[in-house]
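User: Can you help me understand a structure? I only have the sequence.
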Amino acid sequence: MAGSQMPEKAMSEIEEEPIRITEEDIAEANRLSLSCPICASAVEKNTNSPSLRAVICANCQTLYHHTCWQQNGGKCATLGCGHEECYPYGTELGPRLTISYADLPKHVPKPALSPNGRSKELKAQEKRLQREAARKEFWRNLFDRIRRAIGWQ
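Assistant: Let's start by predicting it. Here is the structure, written out as tokens:
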């Protein structure tokens, strides 16, 4: 039994990269969530009860029940937001941009080449160098993890 488990010291030495969560990640999660962050119940679009009417934070677009928004002091509960304005879900926020074919140019100019014409060659070289660096980093990390796992200094 003891032989099938790794030593506790070796397991504690293995460290993973910390997860980095950006504001864009939080905003995207809030847009995809259909649950109210206050009561954790589903926020439904069509409801007869005014207290369960869906509202959206004007800053981070998080969905709430109207009552839950009010119970939270009239501000967003999302970490780092705290915005105090909301609007009913489905409200038109202003004029939309409309484009017709008449607005589009008749002639689309071709993109300019680099002055010496080597842009494709330089881009290919850059990609090759990036792949090579990533490959070296992969093998270095793998070797370091194996070395730490077996306790070899």
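Now, to help you interpret it: The chain has a mean pLDDT of 78. DSSP finds four helices and three strands in the chain. Let me know which part you'd like to focus on.
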